[in-house]
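FAQ: What does a ligand-bound record look like?

Like this one, built around 2-acetamido-2-deoxy-beta-D-glucopyranose:
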Amino acid sequence: MGSTDKQQVEAAAKCGGGCGSVLVTIVVTIWLVLRPSEPKCYIAAFMAPALNKTSNATTNSAIVFLVEFDNENDNVGIQYDNVNFTVGVFLDRNTTSPVGSSTIDGFYQGHKKNAQKWTSVEAHSGALNKMGKVDGKMYFRVNFTTSVKYKTVTIYSKRHRFWGGANIAVNDAGLKEENDNIRLGHYFPVIVQSGAPLLPSSFLGLLVHFVLLSLFL
Ligand SMILES: *[C@@H]1O[C@H](CO)[C@@H](O)[C@H](O)[C@H]1NC(C)=O
Ligand SMILES: *[C@@H]1O[C@H](CO)[C@@H](O)[C@H](O)[C@H]1NC(C)=O
Ligand SMILES: *[C@@H]1O[C@H](CO)[C@@H](O)[C@H](O)[C@H]1NC(C)=O
Ligand SMILES: *[C@@H]1O[C@H](CO)[C@@H](O)[C@H](O)[C@H]1NC(C)=O
Ligand SMILES: *[C@@H]1O[C@H](CO)[C@@H](O)[C@H](O)[C@H]1NC(C)=O
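The answer part, i.e. the structure of the complex:
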């Protein structure tokens, strides 16, 4: 054994656990910095012509909506599998009933890009007649589920499940009442809350988010 080899061995022995934990810290930090963040998904527009009170077009059972996908990552592209939507109506504050489903074809999205895509659902006949009023409003439920792969330089990650849902109130013209985009979040408050949104559901959403992240990454 040469003297330099010996020195290295001695240095390594001295370093022991200390260097190990420094290494772990560095690796964890790099992972935290480079870890891609999940895309965000919103309902940007929503219309149910059958609920337009000033028209008599009750035979139009289509529900049409515009979905926005945001990739906020600086250097990471996203490949989406087919995105499956299910739409339901609220019968009362506690109960939803499914009315139909649709799919947006899978697509690739570059870093820092957003994409808007239309899709529509053909509601089963009479499905909209069952809609109840919650605090005087009609509500829909939209859920989606898909998988995404993150592309860093040329390498794709494994698939990660990506899903969410939201409640959508519509006005007397059959349009989304809320002006802002509605986030299809990771939580499923399938009860229409009266008054202000409650903290626990978003907190739970956050918790679920982190549990999922730690499972999948
Ligand atoms: C809807 O139907 C009512 C009664 O049949 C009629 O008076 C009204 O003009 C119709 N409205 C439209 C926009 O066609
Ligand atoms: C609702 O129906 C009226 C009468 O047919 C039409 O003028 C109006 O554009 C419709 N509103 C929407 C949002 O489609
Ligand atoms: C949306 O997802 C929630 C939670 O899994 C479920 O209770 C609800 O029935 C779903 N609604 C539709 C329309 O798929
Ligand atoms: C919703 O559920 C709650 C608790 O389970 C119940 O007290 C309430 O009567 C239900 N409301 C409706 C409209 O069914
Ligand atoms: C979406 O729907 C298609 C066909 O119904 C199915 O093959 C696919 O597994 C679904 N994807 C997800 C993520 O649920």
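Follow-up question: can I read anything off the structure? Yes, for example: The chain has two domains: 1-34, 37-216.
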